[in-house]
Amino acid sequence: MAHPQMFDDDDPVLERFRGLALSFPEAQEKISHGRPTFFTKKVFAYFGGARKHVTGEIVQHPHGVLVLLDPLDAEVMLERPDSFVPMYLSPAGWIGLEVEQLSDEELYEVLADSYRNTAPARLAKLIKG
Asked: What's the pTM?
């Protein structure tokens, strides 16, 4: 059974996100589990996510970005009030942040960190930082 589309293609927040995510070398987009997913050989970012509240309620973050940061960086980012621990991916180290709360520079930096952690070495070394 296919997942329903969980985003609006005309969303200006997605358009901003997409522009930055696709600026990385050989970055591509596909829809996975109903959400835009950005990858080279491996996924480096998801647009949109969800977290499970302690009550069991599932809270959607339609304008969230899920990224895989270095553990110490992730720990620092999780102190932000706009961060969240996403369902399913958090055991592998992924964290969520609200895109609208990030400046273009901050969004680029978290995408770049995640890209460096997932892209092939020949591509990762092309990203400064």
From this structure: 0.94
